[in-house]
Amino acid sequence: NQLAAARLMAQGNATRAYTALCQQVELDAFNSSDAVAQANAAYTGNVTYPNTPFAGGLKLIVKLASFAAPALGTRVYYISLGGFDTHANQDKDHPTLLKTLGEGLQAFYNDLVAHGISDKVLTMVWSEFGRRVADNASFGTDHGAATDMWFLGGRVKGGVYGTTPNLTDLQSGNLKHKTDFREVYATVIQSWFGNSATETAQVLNGSYDTLDFLA
């Protein structure tokens, strides 16, 4: 079939550098695809996930982290949940979105615990934008500057880090942030991935304090 033929062609002895590179990319793609298929087949679990695309994506991450980690060598998985740009009808849409997020993460964490890897997986939840305090004319809120970040995992020291924002002391309608987001990234890079302060500064283009939310 076409797939088998493509595998054979990718294993050819290329004499040109770019041809060899293309072949290696093909082989890597085939190997990764095989690893994903094997992880999917090997997965066993009794955790019931919500019937949402978001939860389904989280379940796939558990499969890969549990059964395909050595083959893939992947240290970071990314999944998104859209719909939070609530310029209108926020009072109706936002609770539903948070329910989808919370129920998916609950099943995900329970599955990590069941497979004995909750201490090896750190889940970081963030938004690419915050929301303003005041509502607009469409029963929603517009883009804002500050927002919160959530972490989930066996090594997370629970609690709230930072101070409660003042809803009346605003900057152009925006909450004033209390923690630089780069301090959060510095914490993950150093305390989770084990990089040095010097290496972290190279990634963040500057030195930042770390927080104490990881054991």
Write the layout of secondary structure elements.
Elements: H1 2-10, H2 17-42, H3 53-67, H4 69-72, H5 90-114, E1 123-125, E2 130-131, E3 143-144, E4 150-152, H6 181-192, H7 197-204
Antiparallel strand pairs: 1-4, 2-3
Helix pairs in contact: 1-2, 2-3, 3-5, 6-7
Task: Explain how this protein is built.
The strands form two sheets. The chain has a two-stranded antiparallel sheet with strand order 1-4. A two-stranded antiparallel ribbon has the order 2-3. The chain has helices at residues 2-10, 17-42, 53-67, 69-72, 90-114, 181-192, 197-204, and strands spanning 123-125, 130-131, 143-144, 150-152. It is built from seven helices and four strands, in the order αααααββββαα. The longest helix is centred in the N-terminal third of the chain and has 26 residues, at 17-42. The protein is mainly alpha-helical and 215 residues long.
- The strand order across the widest sheet is 1-4
Radius of gyration: 22 Å
Bin the helical content.
40-55%
Mean pLDDT: 91
Q: What is the rounded distance between the termini?
A: 51 Å
What is the beta-strand fraction?
A: under 5%
Features:
46% helix; 7 helices; mainly alpha; single chain
Summarize the structure.
The chain is mainly alpha-helical. It is built from 7 helices and 4 strands; from the N terminus they run αααααββββαα.
